Amino acid sequence: MLEIRNLRKRFGEKTALDDVSLTVEPGQVFGFVGANGAGKTTTMRIAMGVLIADSGDVLWDGEPMGHAQRLRTGYMPEERGLYPKMKIGEQLAYFAELHGETPGGSKKAAATWLERLGLSDRSGDFVQDLSLGNQQRVQLAVSLVHDPKLLILDEPFSGLDPIAVDTMATVLSERSAAGVPVIFSSHQLDLVERLSDSVGIIAAGNIVASGSVDDLRRRGNRKLRVSIDGAAPTWADALPGEVANVDEGEWVIDSGDDQKVLAAAMAAGRVTRFGFDEPSLVDIFRETVS
After folding, report:
1. Which SUPFAM superfamilies does the UniProt entry name for this protein (predicted)?
2. Domain check: are 160 and 254 in the same one?
3. What CATH number is attached to the domain comprising 258?
4. What is the reported pTM?
5. Which of 37, 79, 156, 160 to pair with 116, CA 20 to 30 A apart?
6. In the chain, how many domains are there?
7. Do both 108 and 136 map to the same domain?
8. Which among 3, 17, 24 has a CA at the least distance from the CA of 184?
């Protein structure tokens, strides 16, 4: 289990992190979302020891996270950390050896992940000769080649085509199913919503919301969607809250009194639909950080 407790970090006059705490349980996929500069990358770099926090702790299974624990962590930085003029297969084996694998085990692991990520036929190519999407696949393979016990991935889906996105999503699901805690950041909130067991939203260095997507939806602003046959356009004028006519005979109503809305709708005509629209993660994000 990864625990980040009360992290604070300043760069000169700028506060990058202000008392950030989060927990990623074994087998949990944690989606970390926020605007550019919100503090996601700084948090991940501190967890990996790339940056030193001004205060706070990073714990692995209750103990301070040190070099030994980080050797068993798969880290994918937002900026690619690959050698452009080194062959892909050799590079994967090299990174596996840096994490303590034997030469024979490293070559076998490299071949396994190249095949798994659809790059077997590119093993002898240089990284610089790959498309950006395939470079991203190699970067993911580097984070997995040593069979990590924790995955920390910063924008892993950036630049990937839909097929590569599906491949990477499957890999993350397999790792979490094997008990590996996974924390990843992404601006693609539809992917975060689909893949994550838990989500943390960070803004200006503060965690402003966290929990499962369902929990966040329940806390979000749910709107009523009402369809009525034969209703006059003005039927909802007297209702409290915001009313929007989104289609012919269909309205979205932001009101806290659903029973009053229902009564007015039934008086206006034949109600064919009445229910709440669950907010998406995009809606929750906009509402939370605005």
Report:
1. P-loop containing nucleoside triphosphate hydrolases
2. no
3. 3.30.70
4. 0.84
5. 79
6. 2
7. yes
8. 24
- pLDDT single digits (tens) 36-89: 999 999 999 999 999 999 999 999 999 999 999 999 999 999 887 899 999 999
Is 189 in the same domain as 241? no
Distance CA 66, CA 56 (A): 14
Would 177 be classed as within a structural domain? yes
Angle between helix axes 162-177 and 132-144 (nearest 10 degrees) is 10
Structural domain harbouring 238: 220-278
In a domain, 290, yes or no: no
